[in-house]
Amino acid sequence: MAGIDVLGPYEIKLTLKAPNGQMLYYPGGVAGMMANLAAQPEGAYSAIFKLIGTGPYKVKAFEANVRTAFTRSAMPPI
């Protein structure tokens, strides 16, 4: 990564040191996970097991390697 510029409240610009065809896929995986620090009092690793939900959905139930159930949030984040 050569740089990150904040263009607005919901937009950033990533500048890479070299071309990377996988970059479009990274934000959709573990590398792209974002969580509020208040939701991880035991450190970043705890976010894996204590999901809080994002966007228009909240985590209803989570069983590692079995299932994850979501409910619709009453009010969307935007």
Write the layout of secondary structure elements.
Layout: E1 3-8, E2 11-15, E3 57-63, E4 67-72
Antiparallel strand pairs: 1-2, 3-4
Helix count, per DSSP?
Answer: 0
Identify the overall geometry.
Answer: extended
> How many structurally independent domains?
1
Average pLDDT, all residues: 78
Could you tell me how far the N terminus lies from the C terminus, measured between alpha carbons in angstroms? Answer: 29 Å
Radius of gyration: 15 Å
Strand proportion, as a percent range, falls in 25-35%
What is the tally of beta strands?
4
Low-confidence stretches: none
In short, what is this structure?
The chain is built from no helices and 4 strands.
Protein described:
The structure is a single chain. This protein is mainly β and 78 residues long. The protein has one domain. The chain contains no helices and 4 strands. It has strands spanning 3-8, 11-15, 57-63, 67-72. It has a two-stranded antiparallel sheet. A two-stranded antiparallel sheet has the order 3-4. The relative contact order is 0.12.
Characteristic terms for this protein:
two-stranded antiparallel sheet, 0% helix, 78 residues, extended, mainly beta
